[in-house]
Amino acid sequence: MTDISAVDARLYRIPLAEVLTDAKHGDHTHFELVTVTITLADGMQGTGYTYTGGWGGHAIHAMLVHDLASFVTGKNPDNVEALHDDMQWHVHYVGRGGIASFAIAAIDIALWDLRGKRQNTPLWKLAGGASNHCKAYCGGIDLNFSLDKLLNNISGYLDRGFNGVKIKVGRENLNDDIERVAAVRRHIGPEIAFMVDANYAMDVDKAIEAARGFSPHDLLWFEEPVIPEDLQGYNRIASCTDIPLAMGENLHTAFEFDQACQQTQLGFLQPDAGTCGGITTWLRASEYAARNGISICSHGMQELHVSLLAAQPHAGWLEAHSFPIDEYTTRPLKVENHMAIAPDEPGTGVEFVDEKIAPFRLI
């Protein structure tokens, strides 16, 4: 038996090329990256990670160092799901969801990386094996962009081979949002998939008004119009409008995903493995979505989610996020014929380039 012999957690603060703004979180000048390297007694290593929008990384790192690293050291890494659940209960009283889910995610992803390496199998096969590719779109954090800059930014997405785009909405004046949506649709034409994301900046009544204003412009989905806890609010919006709703990036436990799928009229579910407890929770969320006829999608971490999403028979769209984590890895996201391609290397296929991230290390 080869047990876990060491867990090394590190925190990085990586600057963005420009200030990115959304309706609820304000300005992003950087993102935080928290990595975990798990070493087994035989020397094999697995890499996991999570990230933040710029705040909270120290707390995640502290939970990893002080609460989870010692808990998993000495344990058998083979039953990833059981170890995942054990970690959840270990910190449940003080950290159900939130920071705990971020910290557990980093270890869980490292364990899945080890599972794939030990079985000489890539993640897309471990996670279901439906395919090695999936649809992909670019999601912009662009609420502060002028209209000209917004349209030029979207042209860049299309030039990179994507055939789906998403913009932020949630400006104080709803007419501004509607005008920007109309301009983008004119710019991209009728064939490109188009989504909007309000980052839960609206109340239910405003979201209904917004959806009705967006309706002529053929949106694939309206993402997070209201806070994720307001499941009944989502149902009110869905019953009053004709645009499918999407959410999930702010759900952090399997229970929350199960409840959302059962109780909410969603068209698309968007779990983020880096924030919901890792690959184990992401796959459980995917199962709940399938049971309820909901398409599974992703949020952020495109270099990892491409494998998870490609593996699902009910896959929707992979988000290529504006936090370019993949640019700091050995394999940035590959897009061919509008499809994102999963790596074939054993494990997750995500390996960070130390020379690129080392200058930004905090701890």
Write up this protein.
This protein folds into 2 domains: 123 residues, Enolase-like, N-terminal domain (Enolase-like, domain 1, 2-Layer Sandwich); 218 residues, TIM Barrel (Alpha-Beta Barrel). The longest helix is centred in the first third of the chain and has 22 residues. The protein is 39% helix and 22% strand. Strands 4, 5, 6, 7, 8, 9, 10, 11, 12 and 13 form a 10-stranded mixed β-sheet that branches. It has a 3-stranded antiparallel β-sheet with strand order 1-2-3. It has 13 helices and 13 strands. By secondary structure, it is α/β, with parallel strands linked by helices.
Helix and strand layout, with pairings?
Layout: E1 4-22, E2 26-40, E3 45-52, H1 57-72, H2 80-90, H3 92-95, H4 98-119, H5 123-126, E4 133-139, H6 147-159, E5 164-168, H7 174-188, E6 193-197, H8 204-214, E7 221-223, H9 231-240, E8 245-247, H10 254-263, E9 268-269, H11 279-291, E10 295-296, H12 302-310, E11 317-320, E12 334-336, E13 339-341, H13 354-357
Parallel strand pairs: 4-5, 4-11, 5-6, 6-7, 7-8, 8-9, 9-10
Antiparallel strand pairs: 1-2, 2-3, 4-13, 12-13
